[in-house]
Amino acid sequence: MTSPLQITVYSTQPYDADFLRQATPSGIHWHFVGEALNLQTASLAAGSQAVCVFVNDDLSAPVLAALKQQSISAVALRCAGFNNVDIQAANQLGIRVARVPAYSPEAVAEHCVAMMLCLNRKLHKAYNRVRDDNFSLQGLIGFNLAGKTVGLIGTGRIGAATARILHGFGMHILCYDPLPQPELLPPSARYVELAQLYRDSDIISLHCPLTPDSHHLINAASLAQMKNGVMLINTSRGGLIDTKAVITALKSHKIGLLGLDVYEQEADLFFKDLSDQMISDEVFQRLLTFPNVLITGHQAFLTQEALTQISQTTVQNLQLLCTGAACRNELTSRK
Ligand code: NAD
Fold first, then answer.
1. pLDDT digit string, tens, across residues 183-225
2. Is ligand 1 within 6 A of the CB of residue 80?
3. For position 3, what pLDDT does the model report?
4. DSSP state of 77
5. 3 state DSSP class of 201
């Protein structure tokens, strides 16, 4: 009988452990740790063949080298984005890496649209007012989405799912993507140049990966091209936005409404209960002072369906990576 695979799971939340256990056949033994992976915590993987990681775990070259010293041969990302992994270094070290490329894109798309609706109709304020017996409607005026123009940057799985939902609202949909896939999009969507998307959109939503090319895509220069009072939504990766430029744009009313599920420096904050601590990130604290900013803590993926799919694919990826079999979700520096 072969001995079970030993897998160290970093950044474990209670729901990660529950869903991974549910997806597990015999043959995998999980070691759940709450700590994020970094140079200090790499040693926690000693005795395992592979590690399972999430969006804010550090998989830079030095950390991968430290994992290699612990005889780790595989990394399973339980997410789609892989901007936190030095794929080239992993390949050179002989550590195989796989991700979960597609898990319920609707989960993220629906959260994105929930942020649009909440910000527009000021549900976050209304909730608190009614609980305080304040039934005044002053300051709660929104706008109809029907007939308005939304700009989607990135039309892969999540961008296309967002387009399909917004088509149902009767919106005009402008899209920008260097690799257009018109067959995924509803009839009200069309591809335009980025400059036109910035100029004509009432709402702009980001659905492209974070790469060296897309880092700070939203900056002072791109914001200057947008409509006054534009709504900006980011459910993709924090580094797509120059947060300081966005704060300046909020102060000048260039941005009228801002919804963020991700934040550039989120690794120090998100997925933890910091309610009894002082937050030293002054940029984040400034964002929280604006009444027209809605922030959620990287929860767009968090549905039953997505967690089930993530766990099942992660288990399959680990079994393939650790037995030397081909894995179609494997990442190589050539991809
Ligand atoms: P995908 O690979 O299916 O689609 C990404 C699209 O972006 C592709 O069509 C690609 O051509 C396009 N693209 C690449 N560079 C671009 C650029 N500079 N400008 C415009 N488009 C560009 O990925 P997906 O599954 O749709 O996921 C999109 C992103 O969403 C992921 O990279 C990830 O960062 C993020 N995400 C966030 C959550 C969350 O919980 N908030 C969950 C899953 C994914």
1. 999 999 999 999 999 999 999 999 999 999 999 999 999 999 9
2. yes
3. 81
4. E
5. coil
Can 298 be counted among the known catalytic residues? Answer: yes
The residues facing 175 across adjacent strands are 152, 191
Nearby residues of 150 by Cβ (< 8 Å), 6 or more positions away:
166, 171, 172, 173, 174, 201, 202, 203, 204, 205
Give the percent of the chain with pLDDT over 90: 96
Both tokens of 279, joined, read 């937050």
State in Å: Cα 173 to ligand 1 middle. 17
CA 80–ligand 1 middle distance (angstroms): 9
129 labelled catalytic: no
State whether the beta carbon of 42 lies less than 6 angstroms from ligand 1: no
User: Distance (Å, rounded) from C-alpha 52 to C-alpha 43?
Assistant: 14
Model pTM score: 0.93
Q: Taking 60 as the threshold, does the pLDDT of residue 153 lie above it?
A: yes
Q: Which tens digits make up the pLDDT trace of 116-141?
A: 999 999 999 999 999 999 999 999 99
Best mutation site among 11, 100, 108, 314 for ligand 1, i.e. most ligand atoms within 8 A of its Cβ? Answer: 108
Is the separation of the CB atoms in 87 and 333 below 8 Å?
Answer: yes
Helix 304-322 × helix 14-22 angle, to 10°: 60
Single out the catalytic residue among 78, 99, 172, 298. 298
* Rounded-to-integer distance, Cα 85 and Cα 72, Å: 15
